[in-house]
Amino acid sequence: MKITNENLAVQLQLHNEKAMDFLVNEYSIYLISIIRKHLFTLPHLQLECLVETLLTIWKHMDAYEKSNEFENWIGSVARYCCLEFLKKHQQEATIAWLIEKEIAEEREVMINSLEEEQQELFYRFYIGETLKKGSDEYQKYLYHNMYELLNEIDTDICEYEKEPLPAAAQEQVLRKVQSYIGKKRGISWKKNMDILFRWGERKQVVI
Question: I want to staple 11 with a disulfide (CB 3.0 to 4.6 A). Which of 19, 115, 116, 201 is the partner?
Fold first, then answer.
Protein backbone atom coordinates (compact mmCIF):
# COMPACT_ATOMS: atom_id res chain seq x y z
CA MET A 1 0.00 0.00 0.00
CA LYS A 2 1.22 3.47 -0.87
CA ILE A 3 1.63 5.66 2.22
CA THR A 4 0.16 9.17 2.03
CA ASN A 5 -0.61 11.92 4.53
CA GLU A 6 -4.23 10.77 4.44
CA ASN A 7 -3.52 7.20 5.58
CA LEU A 8 -0.32 7.79 7.53
CA ALA A 9 -1.86 7.80 11.01
CA VAL A 10 -3.83 4.58 10.59
CA GLN A 11 -0.87 2.83 8.95
CA LEU A 12 1.33 3.83 11.88
CA GLN A 13 -1.31 2.41 14.22
CA LEU A 14 -1.12 -0.80 12.20
CA HIS A 15 2.68 -0.69 12.65
CA ASN A 16 3.39 -0.59 8.93
CA GLU A 17 7.15 0.03 8.74
CA LYS A 18 6.74 1.88 5.43
CA ALA A 19 4.65 4.41 7.35
CA MET A 20 7.59 5.06 9.67
CA ASP A 21 9.83 5.68 6.66
CA PHE A 22 7.26 8.17 5.37
CA LEU A 23 7.04 9.85 8.78
CA VAL A 24 10.81 10.35 8.91
CA ASN A 25 11.01 11.66 5.35
CA GLU A 26 8.03 14.01 5.61
CA TYR A 27 8.07 15.21 9.22
CA SER A 28 11.66 15.06 10.48
CA ILE A 29 12.24 18.76 9.63
CA TYR A 30 9.14 19.74 11.59
CA LEU A 31 10.04 17.58 14.58
CA ILE A 32 13.71 18.56 14.72
CA SER A 33 12.73 22.25 14.59
CA ILE A 34 10.74 21.76 17.81
CA ILE A 35 13.56 19.78 19.39
CA ARG A 36 16.22 22.34 18.46
CA LYS A 37 14.16 25.10 20.06
CA HIS A 38 13.74 23.29 23.36
CA LEU A 39 17.09 21.48 23.54
CA PHE A 40 19.23 24.44 22.54
CA THR A 41 21.25 23.88 25.72
CA LEU A 42 21.87 20.23 24.77
CA PRO A 43 22.69 20.31 21.04
CA HIS A 44 24.57 17.00 21.20
CA LEU A 45 21.33 15.24 22.21
CA GLN A 46 19.01 16.68 19.58
CA LEU A 47 19.25 13.79 17.11
CA GLU A 48 18.89 11.29 19.96
CA CYS A 49 15.74 13.09 21.05
CA LEU A 50 14.42 12.97 17.48
CA VAL A 51 14.90 9.20 17.44
CA GLU A 52 13.17 8.91 20.81
CA THR A 53 10.29 11.09 19.57
CA LEU A 54 9.77 8.92 16.48
CA LEU A 55 9.83 5.74 18.56
CA THR A 56 7.42 7.27 21.09
CA ILE A 57 5.02 8.10 18.25
CA TRP A 58 5.36 4.53 16.98
CA LYS A 59 4.75 2.98 20.41
CA HIS A 60 1.86 5.26 21.42
CA MET A 61 -0.07 5.71 18.16
CA ASP A 62 -3.12 4.12 19.81
CA ALA A 63 -3.34 7.26 21.95
CA TYR A 64 -3.77 9.52 18.90
CA GLU A 65 -7.31 10.73 18.26
CA LYS A 66 -8.38 11.40 14.69
CA SER A 67 -10.35 14.44 15.84
CA ASN A 68 -6.99 16.09 16.50
CA GLU A 69 -4.62 17.20 13.74
CA PHE A 70 -1.89 14.59 13.32
CA GLU A 71 0.83 17.23 12.99
CA ASN A 72 -0.35 18.88 16.19
CA TRP A 73 -0.21 15.57 18.10
CA ILE A 74 3.26 14.55 16.96
CA GLY A 75 4.44 18.09 17.72
CA SER A 76 3.08 17.76 21.25
CA VAL A 77 4.81 14.38 21.59
CA ALA A 78 8.08 16.04 20.52
CA ARG A 79 7.63 18.80 23.10
CA TYR A 80 6.98 16.26 25.83
CA CYS A 81 10.02 14.20 24.82
CA CYS A 82 12.07 17.40 25.07
CA LEU A 83 10.82 17.89 28.61
CA GLU A 84 11.87 14.34 29.48
CA PHE A 85 15.33 14.87 27.95
CA LEU A 86 15.78 18.15 29.81
CA LYS A 87 14.94 16.47 33.11
CA LYS A 88 17.12 13.44 32.45
CA HIS A 89 20.19 15.34 31.21
CA GLN A 90 19.94 18.50 33.28
CA GLN A 91 23.28 17.89 34.99
CA GLU A 92 25.13 17.58 31.68
CA ALA A 93 24.65 21.23 30.77
CA THR A 94 27.13 23.88 31.76
CA ILE A 95 24.22 26.22 32.52
CA ALA A 96 22.00 23.98 34.63
CA TRP A 97 19.82 26.84 35.86
CA LEU A 98 18.90 27.65 32.25
CA ILE A 99 17.62 24.11 31.70
CA GLU A 100 15.66 24.29 34.94
CA LYS A 101 14.08 27.53 33.70
CA GLU A 102 13.28 25.97 30.31
CA ILE A 103 11.65 22.96 31.98
CA ALA A 104 9.45 25.14 34.19
CA GLU A 105 8.44 27.48 31.37
CA GLU A 106 7.72 24.78 28.80
CA ARG A 107 5.74 22.70 31.29
CA GLU A 108 3.56 25.70 32.13
CA VAL A 109 3.06 26.63 28.47
CA MET A 110 1.87 23.10 27.71
CA ILE A 111 -0.59 22.84 30.58
CA ASN A 112 -2.00 26.34 30.08
CA SER A 113 -3.91 25.07 27.05
CA LEU A 114 -5.66 22.49 29.25
CA GLU A 115 -8.71 22.79 31.44
CA GLU A 116 -8.25 22.71 35.21
CA GLU A 117 -8.97 19.00 35.67
CA GLN A 118 -6.75 18.15 32.69
CA GLN A 119 -3.95 20.23 34.19
CA GLU A 120 -4.09 18.12 37.34
CA LEU A 121 -3.85 14.99 35.23
CA PHE A 122 -0.87 16.41 33.33
CA TYR A 123 1.02 16.87 36.58
CA ARG A 124 0.12 13.38 37.74
CA PHE A 125 1.25 11.76 34.51
CA TYR A 126 4.35 13.98 34.49
CA ILE A 127 5.53 12.66 37.85
CA GLY A 128 4.72 9.10 36.80
CA GLU A 129 1.41 8.53 38.59
CA THR A 130 -0.97 6.34 36.60
CA LEU A 131 -4.72 5.95 37.02
CA LYS A 132 -5.90 2.60 38.34
CA LYS A 133 -8.05 0.75 35.85
CA GLY A 134 -11.65 0.63 36.99
CA SER A 135 -11.28 3.57 39.38
CA ASP A 136 -13.72 6.48 39.29
CA GLU A 137 -10.97 8.72 37.94
CA TYR A 138 -10.18 6.21 35.21
CA GLN A 139 -13.80 6.23 34.08
CA LYS A 140 -14.21 9.98 34.45
CA TYR A 141 -11.34 11.40 32.46
CA LEU A 142 -10.94 9.15 29.41
CA TYR A 143 -7.24 9.98 29.47
CA HIS A 144 -5.37 6.92 30.64
CA ASN A 145 -1.86 8.14 29.83
CA MET A 146 0.04 11.28 28.92
CA TYR A 147 -0.11 10.60 25.18
CA GLU A 148 -3.91 10.63 25.14
CA LEU A 149 -3.85 13.91 27.04
CA LEU A 150 -1.43 15.39 24.50
CA ASN A 151 -4.30 15.44 21.99
CA GLU A 152 -5.61 18.43 23.96
CA ILE A 153 -2.37 20.46 23.84
CA ASP A 154 -1.82 22.95 21.05
CA THR A 155 1.50 23.06 19.23
CA ASP A 156 1.92 26.24 17.25
CA ILE A 157 3.79 25.33 14.06
CA CYS A 158 4.57 28.98 13.33
CA GLU A 159 6.68 29.41 16.45
CA TYR A 160 9.36 27.01 15.19
CA GLU A 161 11.96 27.93 12.59
CA LYS A 162 12.24 25.02 10.19
CA GLU A 163 15.75 24.19 9.06
CA PRO A 164 16.50 21.20 6.82
CA LEU A 165 17.95 18.15 8.50
CA PRO A 166 21.16 17.10 6.70
CA ALA A 167 20.60 14.01 4.54
CA ALA A 168 23.26 12.05 6.43
CA ALA A 169 21.64 12.87 9.77
CA GLN A 170 18.19 11.90 8.48
CA GLU A 171 19.57 8.60 7.19
CA GLN A 172 21.20 7.97 10.56
CA VAL A 173 17.93 8.62 12.37
CA LEU A 174 16.01 6.35 9.99
CA ARG A 175 18.50 3.49 10.46
CA LYS A 176 18.24 3.75 14.26
CA VAL A 177 14.46 3.76 14.17
CA GLN A 178 14.30 0.86 11.71
CA SER A 179 16.73 -1.09 13.88
CA TYR A 180 14.43 -0.72 16.89
CA ILE A 181 11.14 -1.52 15.19
CA GLY A 182 12.76 -4.40 13.32
CA LYS A 183 13.43 -6.07 16.67
CA LYS A 184 9.84 -5.54 17.80
CA ARG A 185 8.10 -7.31 14.92
CA GLY A 186 5.03 -9.30 15.69
CA ILE A 187 1.68 -8.38 14.19
CA SER A 188 -1.57 -8.92 16.03
CA TRP A 189 -4.24 -9.32 13.37
CA LYS A 190 -6.97 -8.97 15.99
CA LYS A 191 -5.49 -5.63 17.09
CA ASN A 192 -5.22 -4.49 13.48
CA MET A 193 -8.86 -5.34 12.77
CA ASP A 194 -9.91 -3.52 15.95
CA ILE A 195 -8.01 -0.42 14.84
CA LEU A 196 -9.52 -0.46 11.34
CA PHE A 197 -13.00 -0.96 12.78
CA ARG A 198 -12.52 1.91 15.24
CA TRP A 199 -11.34 4.26 12.50
CA GLY A 200 -14.25 3.18 10.31
CA GLU A 201 -16.65 4.11 13.10
CA ARG A 202 -15.09 7.56 13.40
CA LYS A 203 -15.72 8.22 9.71
CA GLN A 204 -19.47 7.68 10.10
CA VAL A 205 -21.58 10.82 10.24
CA VAL A 206 -24.15 10.91 13.01
CA ILE A 207 -27.42 12.45 11.76
Answer: 19
